[in-house]
Amino acid sequence: MVKEKLVLRKEIRKLFRKLLYTIILFLVGMILIKENPSLKQKINNIIYEESPSYLKIRKIYNKYFSNIKKEETKPVFTEKLSYSKDESYKNGVKLTVSDKYLVPILESGIIVYKDDNKITISQVNGIVVEYSNIKSNNYKLYDYIEKGKLLGETKTNELYLTFEKEGKYLDYKKYI
User: Fold this and answer.
1) What fold, for 85-174?
2) Which burial class, exposed, middle or buried, applies to 144 when counting CB atoms under 10 A from its CB (0-12, 13-18, 19+)?
3) Helix (H) or strand (E) holding 132
4) Longest Cα pair distance anywhere in the chain, in angstroms?
5) Which residues lie below 8 Å from residue 139, measured CB to CB, with a gap of 6+?
6) Which of 9, 141, 161, 174 has its CA 20 to 30 A from that of 80?
7) Which of 129, 135, 79, 130 is nearest to 104 (CA)?
8) Residue 54: Cβ within 10 Å count
9) Mean pLDDT by 10 residues, the chain (176 residues)
């Protein structure tokens, strides 16, 4: 009991320290931006024009802030991609799957595009995957999603995938 309280106090102190560091960094950053208009312009260009990689931001966040003690959770959906037939289609592949097939996420990443029929994920390995003919689960744009979890279900018995890296389409056979 005493040991658990000491561990809890240590975790609270660590969290408080990280919070103070974050506040100090934020305030220093705000002061620098206020004093240097060119720095403000550079930051605006990076954020609004170059669109920073959210995966890099997530890695930095995980490195410094995610080691707070969390409860262990077990995934409910642990399916792997299964299909009966694959054939090349445009820049990707058309997979024949069962009707209303529950589509697993191939690799962890961030949702960078979403509409009624298509979801595009920028994966942690740098590959951008587009899933088409799919109804999304309750994900929103820029949600971080993990490998193996449920992405959504197909509208018919076909699932379309494209794999792209640095503007070039990749051979789907390496990734499915």
Assistant:
1) Glucose Permease (Domain IIA) (2.70.70)
2) middle
3) strand 128-132
4) 64
5) 111, 114, 119, 145, 151, 152
6) 141
7) 79
8) 16
9) 71 86 88 86 76 71 66 66 89 92 91 91 92 86 88 92 91 85
